[in-house]
Amino acid sequence: MRHVYRCPLRWSDMDAYGHVNNAVFIRYLEEARIDFLFRPEKEFKQGSVVARHEIDYKRQLVHRHHPVDVELWVKEIKAASFTIAYEVKDDDLVYVRAVTVVVPFDFEAQRPRRITSEEREFLEEYMDRAEETDEEAVAA
Questions:
Q1: What whole-number distance in Å separates Cα of residue 140 and Cα of residue 122?
Q2: Is residue 132 pLDDT above 90, yes or no?
């Protein structure tokens, strides 16, 4: 299962070349991630921080009045981190592929923490099993 966030484009997202600035895509990923993790029925209540972003820019995205889709899914779950994969796209036209490593964080103690069983259960609903199979085939 994948989570889809319909991300509006803003006039201020454009740079001098008339396309969405590369740094703005990080904000699009953040908006999608927040929409995914902090929904009232599935809130990631204990907190988390971003440890790493990796972004591949595939093609230019120019400003328009309709939103772009940010699809995301969980690529990997470890004891104290998880990886979210994204595609910023229109149907089959992909503008950006990215991954973010997220670390659950105890803000009171100011240190990383383990993923709770409830959080793991939620994240597992969004694991892309087809991607896992592809990676296993490549490794073999």
A1: 29
A2: no
